[in-house]
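Record 1 of the preview.
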Amino acid sequence: MLNSLKRRVSKVIKKIDHSHNSFPIRQHNGFHCESCGTKNIIGDLFCCTICADYNLCSECFCSKLTSKNHELNHPCLIVTHPSRPLQSTRLNVLKETFKNKDFNISCDICDTKINGIYLKCNVCYCTFMCLECSKEHDKNHNLILYDTVRLEKFDIEDLKLQKMLDNGNFGFVYEAVLRPYGYHVACKLMNKKNFNKLSLRRLDFAQRDTNIVEKIHCVDKELEAYIEIFSPYIVKLLGYGRDQTQRLFLIMEFMEKGSLEDFMINAKKNSYEIPLYLKLRIMLNIASGIVDIHSKKFIHADLKPKNILLDSNQIAKICDLGSMKNANFSTYDNNTGGLYYLPLEFFMGKYDNKIDIYSFGLIMYHLFSGFRHAYTANNQLQLVRLSKIPLNFIKNLIVKATSMNPSERKTINFYKNILHVYFLMLSDVLNRFSMVDTQHLDWIILNLNDCLIEYINNLYDVKLDLNMNTIQSNQFLEEKVKKNLPKAIDYLKEINIKNEGLKKKNIEQLNTKDFF
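->
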């Protein structure tokens, strides 16, 4: 049923986006995820070095999902390039193969130089370790094993530049082919004038008066910091390099469907309504990416629809970490491009990660209302357009996220978990009904929303411990929703919405007290 809906959504997307060119992608043919069952894994492949023939996709690895006898702390080898020869993933073989390899890195635990393979904790901030220290590390933390450098460096000749995708003060973005591996990428070619800006990000790598060589070195170190945030919902940085004039270029994964901004513009231009299913998933993807950024003590500081990209499967990913700030600092510069999506405290130069929550709320407003935000005299979102959003819980989330008082904005986990609950609800509906089209699905969800909104909001605000981690809170909410959702589903069956064309009768009877 879920696959059936995905096919229907895909048809809608193709009408909205006329660029249907097929591009070689980072697909690991013949490898499937042992956790979710996905075949021919796209993106990064994680191979357990302890369990034989045990592979995970990026999403399951980052979500700490396991099966069989695999344990979280089993070191997993990350395979970025599908065409890279994969001789063995067994830990003992890898240790022997790379025992004399020097990656110029020291263990953050025992402070000794590491020779050969090394590991990185995907939970702890910037923690690299040797094999011996990894044995004593937290058993609930997943570990990435490296047998190559963390960020590969390329020559400009390794790229076959094609059409230009974007340009701005930063430079140019091109579609390109990465010659050594044969698949499409995006190449971000920086302007020379950006050397100063790039070297002054709040990661404290260099001072203003450093010379150009030191600034270039500092940018290289900053790029290393970017891979600290590993997430399936952040556009992958595949490598970097410099051309003959020392101009920096970044190699990113290619996002076939372009930006969320262009996606919404094309939908409006062609009078197509983006399905509710896709809107919810996009916002859940964005929330998941922000969770990963904030968990590593960073602030994105430039979230906007243009910096949200969609891949070939309409999965949303956050891009452009160039304005990212380190959350350990109390004051920051205000150099960023997305001023229209930033709150008042940003311009005062003293803020925290709640500015990302504000931007997240405005993106949600844009996606669900169909309009960029506008303010009244008292700096509140226009109630007229907000009232056009049919989902009560979305309106509530937008109001909470865009509060002018930063302390009133919830953490990103709050918004992610609420969206996750409703996405579960939608999936349950898909498993119980055979819809003719996505419009009928939207109608069912709108009515289920009337049934569940008060219950879920009260549950989350009163009973849920916001300090619990994402996995615990998701399990807590799933249990509550799954317990009560069948009652709502059965009631919808009683009013014959399936067999009578989803007639809107007895809607007034769909209220919370009937089910809880």
